[in-house]
Amino acid sequence: MRFYGIASESRVTEVLEHIEDGVWFFEDTKTGSRERLDGKQVKEKLRDILKQVEEWKEKLHLIPKNTVFVFVHEPSDPKAFKIYDTSSLGCASSLSPPRWKIYKEGVQIKD
Question: Taxonomically, which superkingdom (predicted)?
Fold first, then answer.
């Protein structure tokens, strides 16, 4: 499954409008928790995470404003998201596993 990075939080907000209702899952890979959500709850969860990303970009001056934290499998028909945190930043040639994964039931995503 191919994911596309979204550098602008306002663009992520636009993508949220395309989220379908249904059964979704939210995983926090740091805590190991997994929640079952509906479409409305997914949008709320993503908005909360976006606020956190905006805070990082504002408070951590070394992070460029166009740093990508949110990846979506298909912006016009989102069924899966990977969201990274500041621990993913660095000089590595590949990203560490995402901090959060949000995906629709039946969709399988790899780290």
Answer: Bacteria
